[in-house]
Design goal:
By secondary structure, this protein is of the alpha+beta class. The chain has helices spanning 18-33, 40-54, 84-97, 101-121, 129-137, 178-185; strands at 9-17, 75-83, 146-158, 161-172. A two-stranded antiparallel sheet has the order 1-2. The protein has a two-stranded antiparallel sheet with strand order 3-4. The two termini are 19 Å apart. The mean pLDDT is 81.
Amino acid sequence: MKEIHPLRNKKTSVSLPHVSYRRLCAARMIFARHGIRYSDQEIYRRLFKYFLRNWRGRGKKTNTLRRYNADGKSYEIQPLYINQVLYAALWQRALHSGESISRMLDVAIRVYLPRMLEDLLRSVRSRNSSYWQARYGRRARQYPDFFINYSCQTRNNDENGLEYLQVARIISKGDCGPMQIWDLLLTCA
């Protein structure tokens, strides 16, 4: 199997509805007003991590990936550069749920972008940081920062079949010491 590493990027693309991309651009402008300059890629990475952290699917595997860019909607193809570990965890999730990575990003923009705004802007020193702190404080769940680790092990691959195990782990930074965090930076997304 190919070795994956969090410091190497996967270059691909996603199809986003025009409305979702406009939301993302609006959020980027709000960040810029508060002195936070994030590229689309950094926002995508953070949104994917929120999505993986909060997904709790327990159903059976679907037949195929659901078609996302259906006729009648305007879509924009956007480049996607994310690290190999995060991409592998997303791909595992896509295969399990039958949902495309483009669809995951669209849902993350609609559902988790407001949470991300609140989380980042509450810690920035500005005249309305108390507003963002209050909004974030009203959330039922407040998550500390975390790492995502992915591993895959082939157990059997012969003429009789293929058996493998994929594991994506969520590791909270609050549970780790400084040296563990340093080690996780080199192995996790």
